[in-house]
Specification:
This protein has 550 residues and is an all-alpha fold. The protein has three domains: 17-72, CD2-Gal4 (Irregular); 106-136 and 337-550, no CATH class; 139-333, no CATH class. The chain is built from 23 helices and two strands. β1 and β2 form a beta hairpin. α16 packs antiparallel against α17, α19 crosses α21 (487-501) and α20 (459-467) packs antiparallel against α21 (487-501). The longest helix has 29 residues, at 223-251. It starts with 21 loop residues before the first helix and ends in an 11-residue tail after the last helix. Keywords: DNA-binding, Nucleus, Transcription, Transcription regulation.
Protein backbone atom coordinates (compact mmCIF):
# COMPACT_ATOMS: atom_id res chain seq x y z
CA UNK A 1 0.00 0.00 0.00
CA UNK A 2 1.55 3.28 -1.03
CA UNK A 3 2.20 5.89 1.71
CA UNK A 4 -0.19 8.79 1.78
CA UNK A 5 1.09 12.20 0.92
CA UNK A 6 1.39 14.79 3.64
CA UNK A 7 -1.56 16.72 2.21
CA UNK A 8 -3.84 13.66 2.50
CA UNK A 9 -3.05 12.94 6.18
CA UNK A 10 -5.48 13.86 8.94
CA UNK A 11 -4.76 14.70 12.58
CA UNK A 12 -1.66 16.18 14.13
CA UNK A 13 1.67 15.18 12.75
CA UNK A 14 3.61 13.07 15.27
CA UNK A 15 7.16 14.24 15.43
CA UNK A 16 10.01 12.72 17.33
CA UNK A 17 10.87 14.51 20.60
CA UNK A 18 14.49 15.41 21.13
CA UNK A 19 13.93 16.05 24.83
CA UNK A 20 12.21 12.80 25.69
CA UNK A 21 13.18 10.79 28.73
CA UNK A 22 15.70 7.95 28.56
CA UNK A 23 13.09 5.28 29.41
CA UNK A 24 10.79 6.21 26.51
CA UNK A 25 13.70 6.50 24.08
CA UNK A 26 15.00 3.08 25.12
CA UNK A 27 11.56 1.56 24.46
CA UNK A 28 11.23 3.52 21.18
CA UNK A 29 8.04 5.15 22.42
CA UNK A 30 7.10 8.75 21.91
CA UNK A 31 7.52 10.76 25.16
CA UNK A 32 5.18 13.64 25.99
CA UNK A 33 8.09 15.29 27.96
CA UNK A 34 5.93 16.28 30.93
CA UNK A 35 7.86 17.43 33.98
CA UNK A 36 8.92 16.21 36.42
CA UNK A 37 7.61 12.78 35.24
CA UNK A 38 6.24 12.02 31.79
CA UNK A 39 2.82 10.33 31.47
CA UNK A 40 4.13 6.91 30.44
CA UNK A 41 6.70 6.69 33.26
CA UNK A 42 4.08 7.89 35.77
CA UNK A 43 1.59 5.22 34.70
CA UNK A 44 4.17 2.43 34.70
CA UNK A 45 6.00 3.58 37.84
CA UNK A 46 9.30 4.01 35.99
CA UNK A 47 12.10 6.41 37.04
CA UNK A 48 11.80 9.23 34.54
CA UNK A 49 15.25 10.65 33.85
CA UNK A 50 16.34 13.07 31.18
CA UNK A 51 20.07 13.02 31.81
CA UNK A 52 22.12 13.67 28.74
CA UNK A 53 24.47 10.95 27.60
CA UNK A 54 27.77 12.44 26.51
CA UNK A 55 29.43 10.80 23.53
CA UNK A 56 33.13 11.28 22.95
CA UNK A 57 34.64 11.29 19.51
CA UNK A 58 37.78 9.46 20.69
CA UNK A 59 35.68 6.43 21.71
CA UNK A 60 34.01 6.18 18.29
CA UNK A 61 37.32 6.58 16.46
CA UNK A 62 39.00 3.87 18.57
CA UNK A 63 36.16 1.46 17.66
CA UNK A 64 36.33 2.33 13.95
CA UNK A 65 32.92 4.01 13.96
CA UNK A 66 31.81 7.31 12.54
CA UNK A 67 31.11 10.07 15.03
CA UNK A 68 27.70 11.38 13.96
CA UNK A 69 27.64 12.58 10.35
CA UNK A 70 30.88 14.53 10.43
CA UNK A 71 33.00 13.55 7.43
CA UNK A 72 30.64 10.73 6.48
CA UNK A 73 27.48 12.02 4.84
CA UNK A 74 27.62 14.25 1.78
CA UNK A 75 25.43 14.93 -1.25
CA UNK A 76 28.44 14.69 -3.52
CA UNK A 77 30.41 11.82 -1.96
CA UNK A 78 29.97 8.19 -1.36
CA UNK A 79 28.28 7.69 2.01
CA UNK A 80 30.54 4.76 2.81
CA UNK A 81 33.56 6.93 3.65
CA UNK A 82 34.71 6.36 7.22
CA UNK A 83 36.08 8.66 9.87
CA UNK A 84 39.46 6.99 9.64
CA UNK A 85 40.07 8.79 6.34
CA UNK A 86 40.35 12.05 8.29
CA UNK A 87 42.94 10.79 10.76
CA UNK A 88 45.80 12.24 8.74
CA UNK A 89 44.32 15.76 8.82
CA UNK A 90 43.22 15.75 12.48
CA UNK A 91 45.26 18.01 14.80
CA UNK A 92 45.08 17.29 18.51
CA UNK A 93 45.54 20.08 21.01
CA UNK A 94 48.22 19.22 23.56
CA UNK A 95 47.08 18.83 27.17
CA UNK A 96 48.19 21.57 29.58
CA UNK A 97 50.65 20.69 32.29
CA UNK A 98 48.79 19.53 35.42
CA UNK A 99 50.44 20.90 38.54
CA UNK A 100 49.97 19.42 42.02
CA UNK A 101 48.48 22.67 43.23
CA UNK A 102 45.78 22.79 40.57
CA UNK A 103 42.06 23.01 41.45
CA UNK A 104 38.65 23.14 39.79
CA UNK A 105 37.44 26.68 40.14
CA UNK A 106 33.66 26.25 40.02
CA UNK A 107 30.94 23.78 40.86
CA UNK A 108 27.16 23.81 41.10
CA UNK A 109 27.29 24.73 44.81
CA UNK A 110 29.26 27.85 43.90
CA UNK A 111 26.23 29.30 42.14
CA UNK A 112 23.53 27.87 44.42
CA UNK A 113 25.11 29.09 47.68
CA UNK A 114 27.74 31.75 46.84
CA UNK A 115 27.75 32.96 50.45
CA UNK A 116 29.05 29.62 51.77
CA UNK A 117 32.45 27.98 51.54
CA UNK A 118 31.95 24.32 50.63
CA UNK A 119 34.83 22.52 52.34
CA UNK A 120 33.87 19.03 51.12
CA UNK A 121 33.49 20.10 47.49
CA UNK A 122 36.74 22.01 47.63
CA UNK A 123 38.60 19.00 49.01
CA UNK A 124 37.12 16.76 46.29
CA UNK A 125 38.26 19.14 43.56
CA UNK A 126 41.72 19.56 45.00
CA UNK A 127 44.47 17.58 43.32
CA UNK A 128 47.41 15.94 45.08
CA UNK A 129 48.96 18.67 47.24
CA UNK A 130 52.57 19.64 47.59
CA UNK A 131 54.08 18.29 50.80
CA UNK A 132 57.64 18.68 52.05
CA UNK A 133 59.57 15.46 51.86
CA UNK A 134 60.38 15.47 55.54
CA UNK A 135 56.78 15.83 56.68
CA UNK A 136 54.99 13.19 54.62
CA UNK A 137 53.42 10.49 56.76
CA UNK A 138 52.76 7.15 55.10
CA UNK A 139 51.12 4.12 56.66
CA UNK A 140 54.56 2.61 57.22
CA UNK A 141 55.77 5.77 58.93
CA UNK A 142 52.79 5.69 61.28
CA UNK A 143 53.44 2.05 62.10
CA UNK A 144 57.10 2.79 62.85
CA UNK A 145 56.13 5.79 64.98
CA UNK A 146 53.54 3.75 66.87
CA UNK A 147 56.00 0.93 67.57
CA UNK A 148 58.74 3.36 68.62
CA UNK A 149 56.62 4.90 71.37
CA UNK A 150 57.75 3.63 74.69
CA UNK A 151 55.66 3.30 77.83
CA UNK A 152 53.91 6.40 79.07
CA UNK A 153 55.95 8.88 81.04
CA UNK A 154 56.13 7.83 84.70
CA UNK A 155 55.53 11.43 85.87
CA UNK A 156 51.88 11.00 84.84
CA UNK A 157 50.34 8.08 86.76
CA UNK A 158 46.89 8.97 85.43
CA UNK A 159 47.89 7.54 82.04
CA UNK A 160 48.43 4.06 83.46
CA UNK A 161 44.73 3.44 84.08
CA UNK A 162 43.36 5.69 81.31
CA UNK A 163 45.13 3.79 78.53
CA UNK A 164 46.01 5.15 75.08
CA UNK A 165 49.26 6.54 76.45
CA UNK A 166 50.69 6.74 72.93
CA UNK A 167 48.30 9.63 72.24
CA UNK A 168 49.94 11.70 74.99
CA UNK A 169 53.33 10.96 73.41
CA UNK A 170 51.90 11.91 70.01
CA UNK A 171 50.73 15.21 71.50
CA UNK A 172 54.23 15.96 72.79
CA UNK A 173 56.16 14.84 69.70
CA UNK A 174 53.82 15.83 66.85
CA UNK A 175 51.22 18.38 68.02
CA UNK A 176 53.34 20.66 70.22
CA UNK A 177 56.09 21.32 67.61
CA UNK A 178 53.37 22.42 65.18
CA UNK A 179 52.12 25.13 67.54
CA UNK A 180 55.12 27.45 67.45
CA UNK A 181 56.87 29.48 64.79
CA UNK A 182 60.24 29.07 66.47
CA UNK A 183 62.72 26.49 65.26
CA UNK A 184 64.79 26.69 68.45
CA UNK A 185 62.39 27.31 71.38
CA UNK A 186 59.89 24.84 72.82
CA UNK A 187 56.18 25.48 72.33
CA UNK A 188 54.20 26.73 75.36
CA UNK A 189 51.92 23.75 74.80
CA UNK A 190 54.87 21.67 76.01
CA UNK A 191 56.90 24.03 78.23
CA UNK A 192 53.84 25.31 80.13
CA UNK A 193 51.22 22.56 79.86
CA UNK A 194 53.58 19.63 80.52
CA UNK A 195 54.75 20.83 84.00
CA UNK A 196 51.18 21.82 84.85
CA UNK A 197 49.95 18.30 83.99
CA UNK A 198 52.01 16.69 86.76
CA UNK A 199 49.26 17.60 89.24
CA UNK A 200 46.28 17.54 86.88
CA UNK A 201 43.23 15.31 86.96
CA UNK A 202 42.33 12.59 84.47
CA UNK A 203 39.96 15.00 82.67
CA UNK A 204 42.87 17.08 81.38
CA UNK A 205 44.68 13.96 80.15
CA UNK A 206 41.54 12.89 78.28
CA UNK A 207 41.37 16.33 76.65
CA UNK A 208 45.03 16.10 75.59
CA UNK A 209 44.55 12.57 74.26
CA UNK A 210 41.41 13.64 72.37
CA UNK A 211 43.36 16.43 70.66
CA UNK A 212 46.17 14.02 69.77
CA UNK A 213 43.72 11.47 68.34
CA UNK A 214 41.89 14.14 66.34
CA UNK A 215 45.10 15.43 64.77
CA UNK A 216 46.39 11.92 64.14
CA UNK A 217 43.14 11.00 62.37
CA UNK A 218 44.24 13.27 59.51
CA UNK A 219 46.72 10.60 58.45
CA UNK A 220 45.02 7.59 60.05
CA UNK A 221 41.17 7.89 60.06
CA UNK A 222 40.86 4.96 62.47
CA UNK A 223 41.76 7.38 65.30
CA UNK A 224 38.71 9.56 64.56
CA UNK A 225 36.18 7.54 66.64
CA UNK A 226 38.65 7.29 69.53
CA UNK A 227 39.15 11.05 69.55
CA UNK A 228 35.39 11.61 69.47
CA UNK A 229 34.88 9.25 72.43
CA UNK A 230 37.61 10.94 74.47
CA UNK A 231 36.17 14.36 73.69
CA UNK A 232 32.69 13.25 74.80
CA UNK A 233 34.09 11.91 78.08
CA UNK A 234 35.98 15.17 78.65
CA UNK A 235 32.84 17.25 78.04
CA UNK A 236 30.83 15.03 80.38
CA UNK A 237 33.42 15.40 83.17
CA UNK A 238 33.68 19.17 82.63
CA UNK A 239 29.92 19.69 82.74
CA UNK A 240 29.65 17.62 85.91
CA UNK A 241 32.41 19.65 87.50
CA UNK A 242 30.82 22.98 86.57
CA UNK A 243 27.47 21.78 87.92
CA UNK A 244 28.87 20.49 91.20
CA UNK A 245 31.43 23.19 92.01
CA UNK A 246 29.79 26.18 90.35
CA UNK A 247 31.23 28.74 87.96
CA UNK A 248 32.77 30.90 90.68
CA UNK A 249 34.89 28.07 92.07
CA UNK A 250 35.83 26.76 88.63
CA UNK A 251 36.89 30.24 87.50
CA UNK A 252 39.73 30.19 90.01
CA UNK A 253 40.99 26.76 88.91
CA UNK A 254 43.47 27.03 85.98
CA UNK A 255 42.84 23.40 85.02
CA UNK A 256 39.33 24.23 83.83
CA UNK A 257 40.69 26.87 81.41
CA UNK A 258 43.37 24.50 80.12
CA UNK A 259 40.75 21.77 79.51
CA UNK A 260 38.58 24.25 77.60
CA UNK A 261 41.64 25.30 75.58
CA UNK A 262 42.24 21.68 74.53
CA UNK A 263 38.58 21.23 73.61
CA UNK A 264 38.70 24.45 71.60
CA UNK A 265 41.75 23.21 69.69
CA UNK A 266 40.01 19.87 69.09
CA UNK A 267 37.08 21.60 67.38
CA UNK A 268 39.44 23.77 65.31
CA UNK A 269 41.45 20.77 64.12
CA UNK A 270 38.31 18.73 63.51
CA UNK A 271 35.92 20.95 61.49
CA UNK A 272 36.64 24.56 62.50
CA UNK A 273 32.95 25.45 62.70
CA UNK A 274 30.85 27.26 65.30
CA UNK A 275 31.65 24.67 68.00
CA UNK A 276 35.07 26.11 68.84
CA UNK A 277 33.58 29.56 69.44
CA UNK A 278 31.36 28.04 72.16
CA UNK A 279 34.49 27.22 74.18
CA UNK A 280 35.80 30.71 73.39
CA UNK A 281 32.70 32.37 74.83
CA UNK A 282 32.66 30.05 77.85
CA UNK A 283 36.30 30.82 78.58
CA UNK A 284 35.56 34.54 78.36
CA UNK A 285 32.92 34.24 81.10
CA UNK A 286 35.23 32.24 83.40
CA UNK A 287 38.13 34.64 82.87
CA UNK A 288 35.88 37.59 83.65
CA UNK A 289 34.73 35.93 86.89
CA UNK A 290 38.33 35.13 87.89
CA UNK A 291 39.45 38.71 87.33
CA UNK A 292 36.51 40.07 89.29
CA UNK A 293 37.37 37.77 92.19
CA UNK A 294 41.03 38.78 92.07
CA UNK A 295 40.14 42.48 91.99
CA UNK A 296 37.80 42.08 94.97
CA UNK A 297 40.41 40.33 97.10
CA UNK A 298 43.27 42.73 96.45
CA UNK A 299 43.44 46.24 95.13
CA UNK A 300 45.98 45.21 92.50
CA UNK A 301 45.37 41.75 91.08
CA UNK A 302 48.35 39.43 91.25
CA UNK A 303 49.82 38.04 88.04
CA UNK A 304 48.17 34.72 87.14
CA UNK A 305 50.05 31.44 87.13
CA UNK A 306 51.76 30.44 83.83
CA UNK A 307 48.98 28.01 82.79
CA UNK A 308 46.23 30.58 83.34
CA UNK A 309 48.22 33.34 81.62
CA UNK A 310 48.90 31.15 78.59
CA UNK A 311 45.25 30.04 78.34
CA UNK A 312 44.11 33.68 78.48
CA UNK A 313 46.58 34.62 75.73
CA UNK A 314 45.40 31.65 73.66
CA UNK A 315 41.72 32.60 73.74
CA UNK A 316 42.34 36.32 73.30
CA UNK A 317 44.62 35.71 70.30
CA UNK A 318 42.08 33.35 68.71
CA UNK A 319 39.44 36.05 69.12
CA UNK A 320 41.54 38.80 67.56
CA UNK A 321 42.69 36.80 64.53
CA UNK A 322 39.28 35.29 63.83
CA UNK A 323 37.58 38.69 63.98
CA UNK A 324 39.84 40.09 61.26
CA UNK A 325 38.04 37.85 58.76
CA UNK A 326 34.42 38.02 59.94
CA UNK A 327 34.42 41.48 61.66
CA UNK A 328 32.43 40.20 64.65
CA UNK A 329 32.06 42.06 67.93
CA UNK A 330 35.02 41.81 70.30
CA UNK A 331 34.94 39.17 73.05
CA UNK A 332 38.37 39.71 74.61
CA UNK A 333 39.73 43.20 75.06
CA UNK A 334 43.30 44.45 74.80
CA UNK A 335 44.17 43.94 78.49
CA UNK A 336 45.57 40.43 78.03
CA UNK A 337 49.01 41.64 76.97
CA UNK A 338 51.12 44.78 77.07
CA UNK A 339 50.19 47.07 74.20
CA UNK A 340 53.83 48.18 73.74
CA UNK A 341 55.45 44.73 74.03
CA UNK A 342 57.63 44.22 70.92
CA UNK A 343 58.98 40.76 71.82
CA UNK A 344 57.71 38.04 69.50
CA UNK A 345 55.50 35.55 71.32
CA UNK A 346 56.23 31.89 70.49
CA UNK A 347 52.57 30.91 70.27
CA UNK A 348 51.32 34.00 68.41
CA UNK A 349 54.30 34.23 66.05
CA UNK A 350 54.35 38.03 66.35
CA UNK A 351 54.57 40.71 69.02
CA UNK A 352 51.67 41.57 71.36
CA UNK A 353 51.90 45.15 70.06
CA UNK A 354 51.01 43.94 66.56
CA UNK A 355 48.06 41.92 67.91
CA UNK A 356 46.81 44.96 69.78
CA UNK A 357 46.94 47.03 66.57
CA UNK A 358 45.03 44.34 64.68
CA UNK A 359 42.27 44.38 67.29
CA UNK A 360 42.00 48.17 66.98
CA UNK A 361 41.82 47.98 63.15
CA UNK A 362 38.95 45.49 63.34
CA UNK A 363 37.04 47.65 65.83
CA UNK A 364 37.49 50.71 63.60
CA UNK A 365 36.39 48.82 60.48
CA UNK A 366 33.12 47.95 62.24
CA UNK A 367 32.37 51.66 62.84
CA UNK A 368 33.59 52.98 59.48
CA UNK A 369 30.16 53.00 57.81
CA UNK A 370 28.55 54.64 60.86
CA UNK A 371 30.48 57.89 60.51
CA UNK A 372 27.88 60.65 60.14
CA UNK A 373 29.78 63.93 60.42
CA UNK A 374 32.91 65.54 59.12
CA UNK A 375 34.32 65.71 62.66
CA UNK A 376 34.01 61.98 63.29
CA UNK A 377 35.41 61.25 59.82
CA UNK A 378 38.43 63.45 60.53
CA UNK A 379 39.02 61.69 63.86
CA UNK A 380 38.71 58.34 62.13
CA UNK A 381 41.23 59.33 59.47
CA UNK A 382 43.71 60.56 62.08
CA UNK A 383 43.48 57.29 64.05
CA UNK A 384 43.89 55.24 60.88
CA UNK A 385 46.96 57.25 59.86
CA UNK A 386 48.41 56.80 63.35
CA UNK A 387 47.95 53.02 63.19
CA UNK A 388 49.50 52.93 59.73
CA UNK A 389 52.56 54.86 60.92
CA UNK A 390 52.84 52.61 63.97
CA UNK A 391 52.83 49.49 61.76
CA UNK A 392 55.32 50.92 59.30
CA UNK A 393 57.84 51.64 62.07
CA UNK A 394 57.12 48.56 64.17
CA UNK A 395 60.21 46.51 65.01
CA UNK A 396 59.49 43.06 66.42
CA UNK A 397 62.25 41.58 68.52
CA UNK A 398 63.10 37.90 68.43
CA UNK A 399 64.65 37.87 71.88
CA UNK A 400 67.53 35.59 72.81
CA UNK A 401 69.24 33.97 69.85
CA UNK A 402 68.82 34.53 66.13
CA UNK A 403 65.71 32.73 64.90
CA UNK A 404 65.33 33.76 61.25
CA UNK A 405 62.19 31.70 60.68
CA UNK A 406 60.40 33.28 63.63
CA UNK A 407 61.49 36.74 62.46
CA UNK A 408 60.25 36.05 58.91
CA UNK A 409 56.87 34.87 60.19
CA UNK A 410 56.51 38.02 62.32
CA UNK A 411 57.48 40.26 59.38
CA UNK A 412 54.90 38.56 57.15
CA UNK A 413 52.23 39.28 59.75
CA UNK A 414 53.30 42.93 59.97
CA UNK A 415 52.97 43.30 56.18
CA UNK A 416 49.62 41.50 56.28
CA UNK A 417 48.47 43.92 59.00
CA UNK A 418 49.30 46.88 56.75
CA UNK A 419 47.43 45.21 53.89
CA UNK A 420 44.45 44.53 56.17
CA UNK A 421 44.46 48.16 57.37
CA UNK A 422 44.31 49.58 53.85
CA UNK A 423 41.50 47.20 52.83
CA UNK A 424 39.45 47.52 56.02
CA UNK A 425 39.85 51.24 56.75
CA UNK A 426 40.74 52.86 53.44
CA UNK A 427 38.63 50.69 51.12
CA UNK A 428 41.57 49.44 49.03
CA UNK A 429 41.04 46.54 46.59
CA UNK A 430 43.31 44.05 44.75
CA UNK A 431 43.98 46.51 41.91
CA UNK A 432 45.23 49.23 44.28
CA UNK A 433 49.00 49.58 43.65
CA UNK A 434 49.80 49.56 47.37
CA UNK A 435 47.81 46.34 47.84
CA UNK A 436 49.59 44.72 44.90
CA UNK A 437 52.94 45.62 46.43
CA UNK A 438 52.08 44.23 49.87
CA UNK A 439 50.68 41.00 48.38
CA UNK A 440 53.90 40.47 46.41
CA UNK A 441 56.06 41.11 49.50
CA UNK A 442 54.08 38.67 51.63
CA UNK A 443 54.06 35.91 49.03
CA UNK A 444 57.78 36.46 48.43
CA UNK A 445 58.41 35.71 52.12
CA UNK A 446 56.07 32.72 51.88
CA UNK A 447 57.93 31.43 48.83
CA UNK A 448 61.28 31.74 50.61
CA UNK A 449 59.95 29.80 53.62
CA UNK A 450 58.55 27.17 51.27
CA UNK A 451 61.99 26.70 49.74
CA UNK A 452 63.36 26.19 53.25
CA UNK A 453 60.52 23.74 54.01
CA UNK A 454 59.58 25.78 57.06
CA UNK A 455 56.17 27.45 57.06
CA UNK A 456 55.00 27.80 60.67
CA UNK A 457 52.39 30.21 62.00
CA UNK A 458 51.66 31.67 58.56
CA UNK A 459 47.95 30.95 58.18
CA UNK A 460 46.81 34.53 58.66
CA UNK A 461 49.31 36.32 56.35
CA UNK A 462 48.76 33.71 53.61
CA UNK A 463 44.99 34.15 53.98
CA UNK A 464 45.12 37.96 53.81
CA UNK A 465 47.42 37.95 50.76
CA UNK A 466 45.33 35.27 49.02
CA UNK A 467 41.95 36.99 49.33
CA UNK A 468 43.42 40.28 48.06
CA UNK A 469 45.26 38.74 45.11
CA UNK A 470 44.35 40.39 41.81
CA UNK A 471 42.92 37.66 39.51
CA UNK A 472 43.82 39.59 36.36
CA UNK A 473 47.50 39.91 37.39
CA UNK A 474 48.43 36.55 38.85
CA UNK A 475 52.13 36.61 37.93
CA UNK A 476 54.13 37.73 40.95
CA UNK A 477 57.64 37.91 39.52
CA UNK A 478 59.69 36.49 36.70
CA UNK A 479 63.04 34.79 37.24
CA UNK A 480 65.23 33.84 34.22
CA UNK A 481 66.44 30.74 36.07
CA UNK A 482 63.25 29.57 37.84
CA UNK A 483 60.63 31.02 35.50
CA UNK A 484 57.59 33.04 36.52
CA UNK A 485 55.81 32.65 39.86
CA UNK A 486 52.02 32.41 39.98
CA UNK A 487 50.24 33.99 42.93
CA UNK A 488 47.52 31.39 43.24
CA UNK A 489 50.01 28.58 42.74
CA UNK A 490 52.18 29.93 45.55
CA UNK A 491 49.17 30.21 47.87
CA UNK A 492 48.00 26.67 47.17
CA UNK A 493 51.50 25.25 47.65
CA UNK A 494 51.75 27.12 50.94
CA UNK A 495 48.39 25.81 52.14
CA UNK A 496 49.35 22.25 51.25
CA UNK A 497 52.62 22.61 53.15
CA UNK A 498 50.90 24.15 56.17
CA UNK A 499 48.45 21.26 56.37
CA UNK A 500 51.49 19.21 57.43
CA UNK A 501 53.46 21.77 59.45
CA UNK A 502 50.66 23.34 61.55
CA UNK A 503 47.61 22.24 63.50
CA UNK A 504 45.41 24.88 61.88
CA UNK A 505 42.41 23.72 59.87
CA UNK A 506 43.81 24.41 56.42
CA UNK A 507 40.85 22.74 54.68
CA UNK A 508 38.51 25.47 55.94
CA UNK A 509 41.00 28.22 55.10
CA UNK A 510 41.52 26.85 51.60
CA UNK A 511 37.77 26.58 50.97
CA UNK A 512 37.18 30.23 51.92
CA UNK A 513 40.10 31.41 49.77
CA UNK A 514 38.82 29.41 46.78
CA UNK A 515 35.33 30.88 47.27
CA UNK A 516 36.77 34.41 47.20
CA UNK A 517 38.69 33.57 44.04
CA UNK A 518 35.54 32.16 42.44
CA UNK A 519 33.60 35.32 43.25
CA UNK A 520 36.35 37.52 41.83
CA UNK A 521 36.59 35.41 38.67
CA UNK A 522 32.85 35.69 38.11
CA UNK A 523 32.96 39.47 38.59
CA UNK A 524 35.66 39.66 35.91
CA UNK A 525 33.02 38.38 33.48
CA UNK A 526 29.84 40.10 34.66
CA UNK A 527 31.49 43.14 36.20
CA UNK A 528 31.59 44.11 39.90
CA UNK A 529 28.41 45.37 41.57
CA UNK A 530 28.89 48.66 43.36
CA UNK A 531 27.51 49.01 46.89
CA UNK A 532 28.10 50.48 50.33
CA UNK A 533 30.54 47.74 51.35
CA UNK A 534 34.24 47.88 50.65
CA UNK A 535 36.17 45.05 49.01
CA UNK A 536 36.93 43.18 52.26
CA UNK A 537 33.32 43.41 53.48
CA UNK A 538 31.97 42.23 50.13
CA UNK A 539 34.21 39.24 49.40
CA UNK A 540 35.68 38.05 52.72
CA UNK A 541 33.36 38.83 55.64
CA UNK A 542 30.18 37.01 54.45
CA UNK A 543 31.89 33.58 54.20
CA UNK A 544 34.44 33.81 57.03
CA UNK A 545 32.36 33.28 60.14
CA UNK A 546 33.98 31.14 62.88
CA UNK A 547 37.33 30.94 61.12
CA UNK A 548 40.45 30.26 63.16
CA UNK A 549 43.42 32.11 61.69
CA UNK A 550 45.68 32.04 64.75
Amino acid sequence: MPRRKAADRTGPVKTRSRSGCRECRASRVRCDTKKPVCTRCWEKGLPCSTNLVLKWESEFVSRGMAFGRAGVWSKFRDATSSASELSDTRNWVSLPAIRPWGFVNTGVATFEHPEQADIVLNEMHALAPFTPSNSTWSAGDLAIFHSSLGPSISLFPELSHLGNGELFDYYLQQVCPRTTASSTESSPFASVILPFSTSASSTLFKAIQALGACHRSRADPSYGPLGLRLKSETLRDLRRRLANEGSLNCAGDPEVLVIMMMLCLYEIVDKCDQHWTIHLKGAKDLIRLRRQQAAALTKSADAPDPATAFAEHFFAFQDVMGRTACAKEVLFGSDYWKADDKNIDLWMGCSPELVNILSTITDMSRTRRQLDSSGTQATFSMRAASLESQLEHLVQEVGDGDDEILASAAEAKRLAALLYLHCGLYGACPTTPLVVDYVHQILRLVSDLLDREALPSMTWPVFVAAVELDPSQDELWSDPHCGSASGRATVLRALAAMSESTIANIARTRAVIASVWQARDQDLVKGPIQGEFNDWEKYVVPISDAMSLA
